[in-house]
Amino acid sequence: MQTPVVVLKDSLTRESGSKVHNANIQASKAVADIIRTTLGPRSMLKMLLDAAGGIVVTNDGNAILRELDLTHPAAKSMIELSRTQDVEVGDGTTSVIVLAGEMLHVAEAFINKSYHPSVICRAYNKALEDALVVLDKIAMSIDVNDRATMLGLVKSCIGTKFTAQFGDLIADLALDATMTVGVDLGQGLREVDIKKYIKVEKIPGGQLEDSKVLKGVMFNKDVVVPGKMRRKLINPRIILLDCPLEYKKGENQTNAELVKEEDWSVLLKMEEEYIESLCVQILKFKPDLVITEKGLSDLACHYLSKAGVSAIRRLRKTDNNRIAKACGAVIVNRPDELQESDVGTGAGLFEVKKIGDEFFAFIVECRDPKACTVLLRGASKDLLNEVERNLQDAMSVARNIIKNPKLVPGGGAAELTVSAALKQQSSSIEGIEKWPYEAAALAFEAIPRTLAQNCGVNVIRTMTALQGKHANGENAWVGIDGNTGAITDMNERKIWDAYNVKAQTFKTAIEAACMLIRIDDIVSGIKKKQAPGAGPSKPKIEEEGDADNEQMIPE
């Protein structure tokens, strides 16, 4: 008697082999095609409806892809690439998807010819190593203290963005902000933390030209008692606290039994004395401004305002950290531990201003601030959101240059140089790895080809002319001007890219392509949705001889 085999067709589906390879490649190409038109200065914008029903108008690769809701696992993996690139270097989010899509596209022919995925991956990894060597050769070092060169580089990197039409404004803001928060670690190293110490404050209204980098910080708060406390202080002494200035409540529910009537007034007096002692400890240091992250009782407000001290309560931890960095104060956990060195004296002005309907506190004119706020003004929220995205990219580029002051040619020149060098080296590679290696060299041409397409010029003619110039090894800096489509020297036009961004793009794209090529099985354990009203499905029982091998659960 034959043993029956139970196949749970409803809860487990499996695909394998070349089917999976082709499906993954098609999904990745589809993702690359979505954002292909957003590469370069003459790129198209995309209008997206987000999950909350809002509208996003952008040409930033990462901003577009994170709004997509895709089901294919390979497509999801491609979207993750863009996010990784954004977190790591902040720019090149579109390039990395286009390059990864092209790497997979050229690998499709080898998969169909039954090449083993490991052979293709070995060739791709060898191509990546050689590409980085070529990139090192053509890279040019720059001086981070030369503002004109730095400004040109940041402007060139964000020239493909929507805000490029506003000239040097965004590049200026980004450079000022990153230079402000940079900290020297010694041995020529410099640390720039743009997430912690640069706050972007968007306020609708006014013109984009009104945007500026404050020499200090601002936050959306007013003083606790506007009538009694001063809203403008010159050279303020600032104390920052991380504790409540109110009577402590018990951790658990506490019952107090009062025997005499006088005990009630004694209890109240104890609370008042406790708050008074806290205020006395603070006032000992003659502060002009007290800021706490926690609550501030009415009685404490009374004592502080009586002493002519302004106070702000319930401030965010991140804002408090920025104020500490800007004015040189130290955040204190208990008022009795206060020291003179904890008082911040680096700020030149504290002022509360009304912008629109809301009050904003400014702590500005700081001496050597290590934190700052970028104030953005603009006509609408959509415009401000796009400007903020572009500003984040610009600050990331400035940070990358400060960390590693090297630049490479933009306009597809770096990719064409790498492609020409790999084509020459492919002749020295033995065995079947030679063909995938050569295909990887061709895949690098996807970036200049896409730039030419988005300019609206004759792609075949332009690419042939570029390939001819790079094959002779005439000038590694010859590329496409993304605005006109003309073939020019990138150094003359000041079209540059940060070395870090370009190297990271190559690494991420090729490593991701190798990972997706190596996938030969997709097993899904998600249950299929049943029609409403249908009962639970029973497992189908088949004879061993009839069971389809594709559907069997592997032992």
TrEMBL record:
This is T-complex protein 1 subunit gamma. Molecular chaperone; assists the folding of proteins upon ATP hydrolysis. Known to play a role, in vitro, in the folding of actin and tubulin. GO terms for cellular component: chaperonin-containing T-complex. Residues 528-555 are annotated as: Disordered. The keyword Lyase does not apply. Belongs to the TCP-1 chaperonin family. GO terms for molecular function: ATP binding; ATP hydrolysis activity; ATP-dependent protein folding chaperone; unfolded protein binding. Coiled coil: none annotated. InterPro entries: Chap_CCT_gamma (IPR012719), Chaperone_TCP-1 (IPR017998), Chaperonin_TCP-1_CS (IPR002194), Cpn60/GroEL/TCP-1 (IPR002423), GroEL-like_apical_dom_sf (IPR027409), GROEL-like_equatorial_sf (IPR027413), TCP-1-like_intermed_sf (IPR027410), TCP-1_chaperonin (IPR053374). It comes from Macleaya cordata. Gene3D superfamilies: GroEL, GroEL-like equatorial domain, TCP-1-like chaperonin intermediate domain. It holds the Pfam family Cpn60_TCP1. It comes from the Eukaryota. PROSITE patterns: TCP1_1, TCP1_2, TCP1_3. Its main location: cytoplasm. Keywords: ATP-binding, Chaperone, Cytoplasm, Nucleotide-binding. It is found in: Cytoplasm. Signal peptide: none annotated.
